[in-house]
Amino acid sequence: MIPYGRQDISEADIAAVVEVLRSDFLTQGPVVPRFEAAVAGQCGAAHGVAVNSATSALHIACMALDLGPGDILWTVPNTFVASANVGVYCGADVDFVDTDPDTYVMSVPALEVKLVQAEAAGHLPKIVMPVHFAGQSADMAAIGALAGRYGFSVIEDASHAIGARYRDRPVGNCAHSDICVFSFHPVKIITTAEGGLATTNNPELATRMELHRSHGITRDPARMAGDSEGGWYYQMVDLGYNYRMTEMQAALGLSQMDRLDAFVARRNELAACYNRRLADLPLTRPAQHPESYSSYHLYPIQVADRARVFADLRQAGIGVNVHYIPVHMQPYWASRSFTEGDFPNAEQYYAHAISIPLYAGLNEEDQDVVIAALASALG
Ligand SMILES: *Cc1c(COP(=O)(O)O)cnc(C)c1O
Q: What b/e readout covers 205-216, taking b as 16+ CB neighbours within 10 angstroms?
């Protein structure tokens, strides 16, 4: 089976993890801060906060921005369920903004319409969370401008998009957002097995996220109620979690960062090959916005008869997948009053979507096999 995505682990990655296993610290040591600095540096952001998953990073990002009961978070339906779930973790209400029919990221016109309606109804969101689907940035300048006008905060769910660029600057620089979150799950661009990281330029948000990833405990006298009682002293000043990344994970991530640019370049090369060689088949290729350089986490195509083409490809040993079943159509969300028809662009996209194999280690022979199987399935 040729999978739709998989990690690329080098001998240097393995050596980096083993070195940590022989060292003094398996957690809360020096490697996590080095990994944070490497990712923040790559992005051109002032701070990086590493945690045990992107889901955790999205959660502490919402907490740092004070999302709570009575507040509203908007994200897109064409995403992994975690983007929406973190709003519920905070006790907030969650709603969705439909996606663009061509690029499958948050539609700015749909966002504008919804903001006008929400303002009239007195229900403006506290946080808007665009998702850089498949590795392509949403139109962050436009979303950032609306954030200024309507007073909401912006969290970028860039789980797919480390190494991507928007208007010639790296995704994660937070020029148009408060916080940007990456995932390091093995199918993503670089991996720490499980892991995630939030970047921000706001030192207060960084400190609050650090607090929430580790039980709400601080050892900084400046953040304590009253005076420190001595060198042993710490205070729990808020309710936090244990969302810490281990030193082994950080060592793997740090080693993987050496190949980030090569991984993204290779994914772009493979995508360019698909673009060329699928041009004459009856399918829709993923459209690219001219201001965006995608990290190509996914290569999602649209076909008329999705169920049959999917089954034929699986039969041929191609590990195709579908990203995403619209979140509002999941039973959990349907029970919270969402229904089919609420977000027609995301639903229409889903009805025809297949993600075909794309990962840095995909070789030309395997890509040939995928293309031939697709051509045969499309008759
Ligand atoms: C993978 C993913 C997440 C969750 O990432 P984890 O690191 O697995 O928690 C969130 N949002 C999107 C869009 C994702 O693809």
A: bbbbbbbbbbbb
> Where does CATH 3.90.1150.10 sit in the chain?
260-378
Note the pLDDT of residue 334.
Answer: 86
Q: How far is CA 321 from the centre of its chain?
A: 17
**What is the pLDDT confidence band of residue 379, given thresholds at 50, 70 and 90?**
confident
Domain with CATH 3.40.640.10 in the chain: 7-257
Indicate the DSSP class of residue 168. T
What does the angle CA 142 – CA 147 – CA 150 come to, to the nearest 5 degrees?
120
The tens digit of pLDDT for each residue in 107-155 reads 999 999 999 999 999 999 999 999 999 999 999 999 999 999 999 999 9
Q: Which of 60, 80, 160, 182 to mutate to test the pocket of ligand 1 (most atoms within 8 A of CB)?
A: 80
> Relative to the CA of 187, which ligand 1 atom is closest?
1
pTM beyond 0.70, yes or no? yes
What does each C-alpha distance from 96 to 56, 81, 100, 107, 326 come to in angstroms?
20, 12, 13, 11, 10
Q: Which CATH architecture has domain 260-378?
A: Alpha-Beta Complex (3.90)
The CATH fold assigned to 7-257 is Aspartate Aminotransferase; domain 2 (3.40.640)
Q: Is 157 in the pocket of ligand 1 (CB under 6 A)?
A: yes
